[in-house]
Write a structure and sequence with these properties.
Helix content is about 35%, strand content about 20%. By secondary structure, it is an alpha+beta fold. The radius of gyration is 22 Å and the shape is globular.
Length: about 500
Amino acid sequence: MGSFLSRILAAETPASGSKKRSSGEYSLLLDKLQQLGIHVLETNDGPLPPEARMHDRAAPIPALVISPRSEWGVARVLKTFKDLGLYDRLPISVKSGGHGYFNGASCTGIMVNLGDMTRRRIENDTLFLEPGCLLGQTINALSKGRKAVPHGDCFGVAAGGHFLTAGWDLILARRYGLGCQSVIGGRIVLWDGSVVDVDEKNHPALLHAMRGGAAAGAGIVTEVRLSLIEEPPLATWRFTRINKEQLAICVAKKAYANAFNLPRDISVSFRFHFEPDQLEPVCSFNVVSLLTRDETLRCLNTYLGSEVTSLVAEPSAWNEKSLVDLRMLPASDFLASNPDMLAEVTSEALHRNPLTYWKETSTEREMASSFFTSISHWVVPDCEDMLTKLYAAFESAQMEPSRKRMYALVIQGGGRMSELQDRCSMPLGKALARFELHWDNPEKEERWCRRFTDNISGIIQTRADKGPGRPYRGDIWLQEQAGDEKLDAIHQEYDRRRA
């Protein structure tokens, strides 16, 4: 949620690029908020406190971290900003989970941290989430209620950033759409501290902006309401390591392009990464399905052909389990054995003890706080030649220290996602390719990592889909990529900072 609005605020705030602190402005704000019982922390240019820590260690450090615990607190904070005229003088950002790829959730001025707003409840077929509720907590609530909604698989992402900008689900998206397409309403505190309730009848423009557009930066979303489905009775999957020769078979038979003819209950993806037990890169041919194993195999044989299906035909290698079991694949053995721990998970705990919650390989490749690059591009479904080039690029990196901290993923979209385009404020393609690369030592590793990322980006763009016009919003990694004329117009309509 912070990314879109921080782009707007930073562009309009003269002080946004400055490291200077205005002690008079901050001290007056501190006094007023402390009188209201709202928690405020001065960082004094030190490291980010646990409650404000970002996924990207390169994030700027704010001078103040303000952590309201309720909608009333958010409203009082924003009204105080306006009363003191701070919108024109200081950079302001909003953090829910802190996973924004260009660090829109942090700035050098004031961070409004929503991490203490984690309440969630299910009423009938509607999920009510506060913006700081983590996906781990959401998974737990949905499991208890035997309900489901499309969402990602990182336990530490929070509802405010995730469901308002993204919500890609490996198994549910083609059948049910993105998580942001399930948004049916919510509540927003505008920048003057006034509160609006949003649904199809009330402020429909803001509802449109909440579905993939971070509410157009019109204020701070304090409640997200999502339409739920019944928990699917079965989740079926097989993630199969294939070698270079087997990848060549998939490419020759156009396995990825043909997968778009499969029933929407089945999704196919290719993932490239490294595993500790082999030097060569791993290409994982991934199939997830809401059908049984045997039904899935019959469909694969029909649409992908017998030669490709033979790569995944061994029955004993398939999993037929629950949706929660699939969600727990990145989890540590300890968390997988105690999934109810997700009800207690916090951002601070995930940063402090990542291996308590995630497998070591998941931690290294994407889950733990680090320096990193992250890119994505919409690609055309007929992109098999790109898969071969990605494998070759990973082969070239097999002796590099950062090899174990990268992955590329080419995943199917389309289906219900495309049908629900009118319920999404970002343009959608049919296939997405994304890449992440992490490092801890900028002096020794950053230069190579950025060069390699540029190489991967160039490979992906050889099969780019020019139709959508900009990246998937959940993966935007440059501020200038967040612009959108319709969302900007909604922002202008509801911007109350100077009204």
